[in-house]
């Protein structure tokens, strides 16, 4: 299969959703529902593995959860009282079934299924060593490295082997795994990606976000802590902290863009956080205008916060067509450009002759902003002021959010005035980094040390070493071409 690589970057970046449940007769059906609520975290592929006491029943498919996991036939085949699931969003690497999770391995100590959200930063280094020692990789995902490290570990139990494996990896991971007699949830020591614990009656659930608990009527119990590994089996929940303590570095971009606004992550409502960011933005970069318009859907909560704070009416001046995926996820540049037009249309009636403030969550390449500003002008806006509810995205993410290489990031190439010209707005402003931290309830960036965030995409301050990147190791070289 020939695809145009949208990011000119061969490494595999994945932002995904994970779900796990133990001890329920309808484990696979509940997992399918949970994954449906986590669809925003990955629309490329999905998979479920269920265990019925004897067999690991696995189904993996390219495409949306609802298109592949809604029939009785499929769910019926996924028999078992325990299940784990994954939604995958990898914009590079092969879009082939062999890269879809959960991964499964027959270990000397039993069956093992694994689903991973995040990105490992020493994947290439580990992979090379494993291959030299005889490991035969089946996929090009970084997650498979963990499976091989577990398979070749000399420890006796799967749990100890998993700990041994994870002690060797660097990067971001929130994983769920399934063994013969348990499910496991684990977060990297910095807690970059989310993972929470829920309960449905006596049944424990693990999920990337609380919206996946809501959909099945489960209660939120707590977040899995950074560096915590939980084992859920017939005796209940056991918690371990097998890794050296590290500073908390939750991905602040989860709050800005990635997580669903109805989720509560790391103790904070995503919706409220976005409104607070919008309010900070209004305080920092006030401009006289007639209406505040969000770039839907991701800009909506911040625009509400902005409008409330500024005392300027909020209007839906752009209507989104909901039958198109997120712009970024389209595979080629051409389609991505086309995608923006497919997705948004000006609601002319409340724009003509007005001074408009447009609020979006972020500018990455600038594609969206250029189109939307032009759309406002074409609809008769008198002035167009762009306000962005995050600081300028100047650096790539290596921990699982798919930001392109630096030379594709608008803010890495231009200063704010140049970006304003490029976008065609009358004025452009981003929330400051301290404003962002204030919105998150901190006094400033520097006062939040221990309970801090990963904000590398805005500051270049990478909290976890970038071993592969520093060594100049790029892609997983695959000599296998395969059609999806
Ligand atoms: P741009 O068009 O500037 O390249 O991207 C900015 C737009 O893409 C914003 O409207 C934002 O909501 C969205 N966006 C920002 N980061 C991401 C991401 O990591 N993935 C996806 N799918 N969309 C993103
Ligand atoms: Mg958006």
Largest sheet: 7 strands, antiparallel
CATH-assigned homologous superfamily of the largest domain: Aminohydrolase, N-terminal nucleophile (Ntn) domain
| Bound molecule kinds, no repeats | guanosine-5'-monophosphate, magnesium ion
> Structural class, judged by helices and strands?
alpha+beta
Radius of gyration: 22 Å
Q: Trace the largest sheet across and list its strands.
A: 3-2-4-1-10-9-11
| Gross CATH architecture of the largest domain | 4-Layer Sandwich
C-alpha termini separation: 7 Å
Percentage beta strand: 15-25%
Poorly predicted residue ranges: 1-13
Approximate helicity band = 25-40%
CATH fold field value of the largest domain: Glutamine Phosphoribosylpyrophosphate, subunit 1, domain 1
Domain unit count:
2
**Rounded mean pLDDT score:** 91
Number of strands: 23
Shape: globular
- CATH class of the largest domain reads Alpha Beta
Oligomer kind:
single chain
How many H/I helices? 17
What is the element layout, followed by pairings?
Blueprint (H helix, E strand, L loop, with lengths): L16 E6 L4 H11 L7 E7 L4 E7 L2 H4 L3 H6 L4 E7 L14 E5 L2 E8 L5 H10 L10 H10 L5 H11 L5 E5 L4 E5 L8 E5 L2 E5 L3 H4 L4 E5 L5 E5 L2 E5 L9 E2 H7 L5 E2 L2 E2 H15 L6 E4 L5 H11 L7 E3 L12 H11 E3 L8 E6 L6 H12 L4 E6 L21 H4 L2 H8 L3 E4 L2 H7 L13 E2 L1 H4 L7 H4 L14
Parallel strand pairs: 14-23, 17-20, 20-21, 21-22
Antiparallel strand pairs: 1-4, 1-10, 2-3, 2-4, 5-6, 6-7, 7-8, 8-12, 9-10, 9-11, 12-13, 15-16, 18-19
The structure holds guanosine-5'-monophosphate (5GP) and magnesium ion.
